[in-house]
Design a protein that fits this description.
The chain is of the alpha+beta class and about 375 residues long. The protein contains twelve helices and twelve strands. The protein is globular.
Length: about 375
């Protein structure tokens, strides 16, 4: 549904505050002495991309009114906005060449005001479009698909294989939800094992790896891996389906763990209709900029064992992972995961309104709740 200017302004303030709050939470996780939270650091990189995208969309509203959000479902922009921003990122340089420079536009606006005693609306739109295109051109944006990146390399001394930690991002076009994937893979390719693993099961110190590496570290599989994750990362696919398909399609890659972070839904007063109870309570919050609720879900699938390769006279069965799905938990079984976490972030004023309404147990059942207050996040309330 399209938004008017005042609604859009409230929405951008709310989603901006929510992403800022999520960043505070993620930074605290990274800095915690009790944990080495690589996932938090990875998600933070994609939050920065989302913030850049929202800044562009906000600038775009100054010269066009086609911004739409998924009001009844995710609360995030609809996929068409993501596609258009990606297109504008690619064509920004050519389009900027057709628009006068910022200095020239400012001079023309001043001259217009002096001569006609009117506001130069057309020139203002041209300036807004220039600002938008400049931001779209240089910023790292949350695109429909963000290529994999290898961020960590090690060796499993038991299998004598190199291990990679790889992440990538997807904005799902059907659910209108941004998602972040983080996979831990072992590579049994003979040339890679020979190059990276020493005889005592350690990473070869003579191989200098300038992390992060764009794409999968193994160059022979990098392009195929890019194609695979682009086609097999939709929200409709369970993590177990993705991991099993990856294990099947890559005989020498062994996915040991796959984590998927689904950002959203996002709830905002007067803007989203994805939960009537939440919307009703948020409408009672005094400050509109505090009338929001952001949720996210982290899903994990891990291998509990590896079925070894079987070689026969006429055929060979490749090594296969056996993934653990927690069947004692109905929600785990439904999701196709070993475990999952649901999180909710809410401003202090909104949490007070929810608490006063007596709806907190109903709304936050199954969630780890984090309250944003004075720039700090209080968890497990």
């Amino acid at each position: 549904m399209e938004t008017d200017e005042s609604q859009a302004s409230r929405y951008f303030k709310a989603i901006g505050a929510a992403l800022d709050g999520l960043n505070v939470f993620l930074l605290a996780r990274q800095a915690s002495p009790q944990r080495d939270d690589i996932l938090a650091g990875v998600i933070a990189q994609y939050i920065a991309r989302l913030e850049n995208s929202f800044a562009c969309w906000r600038n775009r509203l100054a010269f066009t009114d086609t911004f739409k959000i998924s009001r009844a479902e995710s609360g995030f922009p609809v996929f068409q906005n993501v596609l258009e921003l990606d297109r504008d990122h690619l064509t920004a340089k050519e389009r900027l060449e057709t628009i006068p420079s910022a200095a020239q536009l400012r001079a023309e606006m001043a001259d217009f005001i002096l001569r006609k005693r009117e506001f130069p609306a057309a020139l203002q739109k041209s300036m807004a479009e220039r600002i938008y295109l400049e931001a779209a051109q240089k910023g790292e944006l949350f695109k429909p698909y963000i290529l994999p990146r290898t961020i960590k390399v090690g060796v499993n001394p038991q299998t004598m294989r190199p291990t990679y930690m790889v992440h990538w991002g997807v904005f799902d076009g059907s659910a209108n939800l941004p998602m972040v994937y983080l996979a831990t893979l072992e590579d049994s390719s003979e040339n890679i094992v020979e190059a990276l693993v020493t005889s005592d099961g350690k990473l070869n110190p003579n191989e200098k790896i300038p992390l992060p590496v764009e794409g999968l570290l193994n160059p022979a599989l990098a392009r195929q891996f890019d194609d695979f994750v682009e086609k097999n990362s939709s929200y409709s696919l369970s993590p177990s389906t993705i991991a099993t398909s990856m294990d099947k399609d890559f005989p020498t890659l062994h996915p040991k763990q796959l984590r998927r972070s689904v950002l959203g839904p996002f709830y905002s007063v007067d803007m989203t209709e994805n939960n009537s109870t939440v919307s009703e309570v948020l409408s009672k919050v005094r400050k509109p900029e505090n009338a929001w609720l952001l949720t996210w879900t982290i899903q994990e699938i891990f291998s509990k064992a590896e079925r070894p390769e079987k070689k026969g006279f006429f055929s060979t069965d490749q090594a296969r992972e056996e993934y653990h799905i927690e069947t004692d938990d109905l929600e785990c079984a439904r999701m196709g995961v070993s475990s999952y976490e649901r999180h909710a972030l809410v401003p202090h004023e909104a949490y007070q309104a929810l608490y006063a309404s007596g709806e907190t147990k109903k709304i936050f059942d199954g969630y780890k709740v984090h309250v944003l207050s004075n720039g700090q996040v209080i968890s497990d309330v």
